[in-house]
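re: ur question from earlier - yeah i can do the single chain one, its not a big deal. heres the input i used so u can compare w yours
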Amino acid sequence: MSIFFWQISMNNVDNKKTHEWREILMRKNHLLQFMMIALFAIVLAACGGSDGTSNDASEASSEAEKSEAVNEDDAEASDDIDMEEVQEELNIDMDEDAEMPQNIPSDVPLPDDMEVVMTVDNDMVAQFNVHTTMTIEELEELYVPYLSSDIFSGEPEQMILEDDDYYVVEYSTEYNGDGFEVTIIEEEDYRDLHILVRYN
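and the output i got, formated as tokens:
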């Protein structure tokens, strides 16, 4: 699933508060990257030693403790991230008047009531993120036929992630040789819609 940026509820808050929440969100994403790297290290350590044999439980536990300590250091380091620098480096625009990146198809359907959350436009992805009150069913009726049109390669693939706290549906296909994804995240009062081109 494409989770380039996790989104949190930003309804009914002023612009200053929205900006503060977005900064917190970015810090959480950075910390998540550190955690994923640490988890990968734990898995490697648990799978086998340098001689190709399995490590015992004490070795795995030791590695986990070390990784936990690293995570704590990384959490502290993430607080020192210059968010403005990150936004500039990744070309993230959080202005409500931000325009959709040019490499996203110009004929992509958009909700009439959309509120722009952010855009991302760099050499890795082009992303357009909005909020809408349209239901998931209405959004699927809007995007599934579009993603099945001739400008895309093959039928779109659907993936659903569901739990007590969230519901996410993603449709993925190819556009001009690159990945194209539409992700819908269910929120209490709105839907969080991500339209993304992932460059290969």
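The mean pLDDT is 75. not sure if urs matches, ping me
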